[in-house]
Design brief:
Elements lengths: L4 E10 L5 E9 L3 E5 L18 H17 L7 H12 L9 H18 L4 H6 L5 E2 L1 E8 L13 E5 L6 H22 L19 H19 L4 E5 L6 E2 L4 E4 L4 E3 L1 H15 L3 E3 L7 H11 L4 E4 L7 H10 L4 E4 L1 H4 L2 H13 L3 E5 L9 H8 L4 E3 L5 H16 L4 E2 L3
Parallel strand pairs: 4-16, 5-15, 7-11, 11-12, 12-13, 13-14, 14-15
Antiparallel strand pairs: 1-2, 2-3, 5-6, 6-7, 8-9, 9-10
The structure holds 2-phosphoglycolic acid and zinc ion.
């Protein structure tokens, strides 16, 4: 009777893009957990459904009672059982009845309520007393694609990771230094730049991919030289967004070019080689395991080749990728799969096969800080959660607090 659930409440709140999302409160007799679901703009086709057809309003009207009547009286600490019950209540294989966002908010709030019942922070409740390492923050510098306006680059995200940082504050500051340098360089190049940002807090400039790459990578070099903290570039190509199935080509609209699958592989391999990329996400569209594998065999020794839309945090799809040797890293977004138990199972499979897990925010976020705890608890060496903007900084500042609590904290092994 240590963490018996007494109440579950769902409410409609608003995310960073201004869209409605769901927040869950779970109360135990002596604890409380609250969590909110994020949402994507460049979602993978194999993600679970975010909401039932009637959206958040239907969740509040119908689903809240369905869930609370089942899980009130259960122990919050029996998270696996509660996650099973969420699957049972839903009854589909993609959470289309209750919504994956509902499931994830309830699952995370339940875990937090259990932690609170034992007076523990979430990372310690989930990860035990052994975690000592802090993930490196992969920060968003320039936004393009589905996260920015019409004249921004086709590539969705130009990222950086401060691999030389010795603590989280240095890591966050290094990313901010690069973010500022990039702004100055954009302004130099485009006198009309107003300082506009995209959904994830990166600048949204009127630049080609090539110009953005040049600014991103030269800024990394300069900040490394000036501060002595090595910071390396990364990309989220989000290429499913501009893959044209009919033409069988990657269509770069802003650039006015298109690339066949082989040309895309060569283009990305070339970028990795030229600019020494540390990380490239979704360089190939979500259905093409073969091309993903080809690029991994070309460039995977030098660079993390990460699947987001490709794997959608789904252990079955990851198993297929492992078999095909597609990628060597994967994005972990709990709301792509719906529960913490499913998320954990995917991370476990990834680690057993030496795929590097990157715990990630979504483009539509709230100030919910849960993913900071998940990254530490699950020992993920990288967290992708922007560099600036309140809903991004909420996660990074939580890492500052977690680091303060850890005994002999260190940055993760990369
Ligand atoms: P999304 O994009 O949250 O809009 O799906 C983020 C990403 O592709 O990593
Ligand atoms: Zn992505």
């Amino acid at each position: 009777m240590d963490s018996v659930i007494e109440d579950v409440r769902l409410r409609k709140i608003i995310d960073s893009r201004g869209n409605p999302t769901v927040e869950a409160d779970v109360l135990t007799w002596n604890g409380f957990g609250r969590a909110a679901a994020p949402s994507g703009a460049s979602t993978g086709i194999n993600e679970v459904a975010s909401f039932p057809d009637g959206g958040v309003d239907q969740v509040i009207e119908d689903v809240e009672d369905l869930i609370s009547s089942e899980i009130i009286g259960m122990e919050a600490e029996d998270l696996r059982e509660i996650d099973n019950v969420l699957h049972e209540i839903d009854g589909t294989d993609n959470f289309s009845t209750i919504g994956g966002n509902t499931a994830v908010a309830v699952s995370m709030a339940t875990a937090k309520a259990a932690a609170s019942s034992y007076n523990l922070p979430l990372y310690k409740f989930l990860g035990g007393i052994m975690p000592t390492s802090i993930p490196f923050p992969l920060g968003n510098m320039i936004n393009g694609g589905a996260h920015a306006g019409t004249n921004a680059p086709d590539i969705q995200e130009f990222l950086v990771i401060p691999v030389g940082a010795s603590n989280i504050t240095e890591a966050i500051t290094t990313n901010i230094n690069v973010h500022r340098r990039i702004k100055a360089k954009i302004q130099e190049k485009d006198k009309t730049f107003t300082g506009g940002k995209g959904d994830e807090g990166g600048w949204a400039p009127n630049l080609t991919n090539e110009e953005a790459l040049e600014i991103q990578t030269s800024s990394c070099e300069e900040i490394t030289d000036e501060t002595g903290v090595l910071v390396r570039p990364g990309l989220d190509v989000a290429s499913s967004e501009f893959w044209n199935e009919e033409e069988q080509k990657y269509v770069y609209e802003r650039e006015g070019t298109s690339r066949t699958v082989e040309e895309q592989i060569d283009y990305i391999a070339d970028l990795i080689d030229t600019y020494k990329f540390f990380y490239v996400e979704d360089p190939i569209q979500e259905n093409d395991f073969e091309a993903f594998a080809e690029l991994t065999s070309k460039s995977g020794k030098d660079c993390l080749i990460c699947g987001d839309d490709l794997f959608v945090t789904n252990a079955d799809i990851l198993a297929k990728g492992i078999e095909a040797h597609a990628g060597n890293s994967l994005i972990i977004k709990p709301n792509q799969i719906g529960t913490l138990t499913d998320t954990y199972n995917t991370i476990k499979l990834a680690k057993a096969n030496k795929y590097v897990p990157v715990v990630s925010h979504r483009s539509g976020e709230t100030t919910d800080e849960t993913i900071a705890h998940l990254a530490v608890a699950f020992n993920a060496p990288v967290i992708k959660t922007g560099a600036a903007g309140g809903e991004r900084i909420a996660k990074l500042n939580e890492l500052v607090r977690i680091e303060e609590e850890l005994v002999n904290p260190k940055m993760a092994d990369l």
